[in-house]
Design brief:
- This protein is mostly helical.
- 80% of the residues lie in helices and 0% in strands.
- The longest helix is centred in the C-terminal third of the chain and has 39 residues.
- The protein is flat and about 75 Å long.
- The protein starts with a helix and ends with a helix.
């Protein structure tokens, strides 16, 4: 009885809940995130240990697959040197330019096609013809027209990333709640105001997902262009190391490329969570 009275105000009205429950929920979420990271890290360590053992015991030919510890030692030496970061910058230059070009072209086009069923029907056949064309198949044409420099890399990245951005934007616009649009219209909002207040916020999560997907595709195409046509960047450095018989260096550069892709995905995911924290999907993921 005394505990119950302690949670009531003087006039018998129950007092507001103590903030302890909120702290407990935040603590539980934090512990859950730490546990998730521990599991992920354990999986990575087990995989790397297995590869190390396979190389040391000869299950994998050490001549072509050196121990993982040697690869990471080589990578550590590269990290403190300037050449690695120069190559990373060159790769990121093509990645960023191609992704930016695709975004500038695809998002407005997707907004238009998503808002107009007639426009989408008019260009659907052309889209369905061009979309399945692999970007790699365009390398001979791109080299012939643009040469083997940055321009070809940007073109391949932009072509490959244009399609996921375009379709995500179309889906986002088409998924706008018609009730929300009608309500905005009934309140006298013009077309531009409805676009800014209803259409764009509803399509933003789709566009963000498209950007995150396109980011990974852009890195793949940038490195592929460097591998195939010899454009400056991490891909070219990998080929040079392989040609010179520096196998450990080659693997270190491959690991650096993988870590770069992981870092870019983490950056886009964090930006998506921060900018779209109001969206129900992000709130569910955060446990709110």
């Amino acid at each position: 009885m005394s505990q119950a009275l302690q949670h009531q105000t003087g006039d018998g009205v129950p007092a507001a809940p103590a903030p302890v429950a909120g702290r407990d929920r935040r603590g539980a979420r934090w512990r859950g995130r730490v546990a998730t990271w521990v599991v992920k890290l354990a999986g990575v360590l087990v995989t790397l240990s297995a590869l190390e053992l396979a190389s040391r015991t000869g299950a994998l030919p050490r001549q072509w697959f050196p121990p993982v510890t040697e690869m990471y030692a080589e990578l550590a030496g590269l990290v403190v040197g300037l050449p690695l970061w120069v190559e990373v910058g060159r790769t990121l230059g093509g990645w960023a330019a191609g992704l930016l070009l695709a975004t500038v072209l695809a998002v407005p086009a997707g907004m238009l096609l998503g808002a107009s069923a007639l426009a989408f029907r008019l260009v659907r056949v052309v889209i369905e013809f061009l979309r399945p064309v692999p970007s790699v198949a365009l390398i001979p044409l791109a080299v012939l027209v643009l040469g083997t420099g940055l321009e070809t890399k940007v073109f391949l990245v932009a072509f490959a990333t244009f399609w996921p951005l375009l379709f995500q934007t179309i889906y986002g616009v088409q998924d706008v709640d018609p009730v929300a649009t009608d309500t905005a219209r009934s309140y006298g909002l013009g077309a531009l105001a409805r676009f800014g207040e209803v259409t764009l916020p509803s399509a933003a999560p789709y566009i963000a997902t498209g950007l995150r997907i396109a980011s990974a595709i852009a890195l793949v195409l940038a490195v592929t262009a460097e591998l195939v046509i010899g454009a400056p960047g991490l891909g070219q450095a990998i080929i040079v190391a392989q040609s010179g018989g520096a196998i450990t260096l080659m693997y270190a550069l491959i690991i650096a490329t993988g870590l770069l892709g992981w870092a870019l995905n983490a950056v886009f995911s964090a930006a998506e969570r921060r900018l779209l924290h109001w969206h129900p999907a992000q709130r569910r993921e955060a446990g709110l």
